[in-house]
Prior knowledge:
Number of helices: 11
Largest sheet: 4 strands, antiparallel
Distance between the termini: 31 Å
CATH topology of the largest domain: ATP12-like fold
Number of strands: 6
Number of domains: 2
CATH superfamily of the largest domain: ATP12 ATPase
Order of helices and strands: EEEEEHEHHHHHHHHHH
Amino acid sequence: PPERKRFYQNVSISQGEGGFEINLDHRKLKTPQAKLFTVPSEALAIAVATEWDSQKDTIKFYTMHLTTLCNTALDNPTQRNKMQLIRAAVKFLETDTVCYRVEEPAALAELQKNEWDPVVAWAEKRYNVAIGSSTSILGPNIPARTKETFVSHLASYNMWALQGIEYVITQLKSLILSMGLIDRHITVEKAVLLSRLEEEYQIQRWGNVEWAHDYDLCELRARAAAGTLFVHLCSESSTVKHKLLQD
């Protein structure tokens, strides 16, 4: 949406029957489909309220990733159920960024091996699966058992967290990197770097359009970080609030 002039002074949260609500002065925040904006945890409500409170003279909706994710979870515009969300996430394995390798140039092939092999090995050990990689345009042949293992693992998350997981996967173009990030095995900066490895290699070799590269990098980090935070805040108890406030 286009930017809108800030129309409120104060942002607060309150607990309602369905969860925690966001108040803009005396107005209740609503979703694009006019549903009451209600989130399942106080910690998430605090994070969303912070997004709204951080807006200055105008409301920049494109900077409010947590609000957007909550709207998606509440309105479910694609009308998918839990299993459909899980299957969509697992399908990314077939085109996972870290599974597609080049043979030429040799320097890039070596870089992919050095940087991507460790995270693939971690995922194989962590989930007791076989993943592998391929230089074929068809990609690796992911075993059915591997897919079913990830289906079972993702089924342990609730619908809200799954929306966040799919969002992170879409940003990184990788289920493996996303799970490494959500499981706290790698940082946001590392996950983003690994997802852009070929692009970063080309930039090191040929240079870049400075402002465009910096903007894209920061935006991707912001989206990946917001999605990961969303997953954690939707998966953990309200005691997260205390840690969030301390941090």
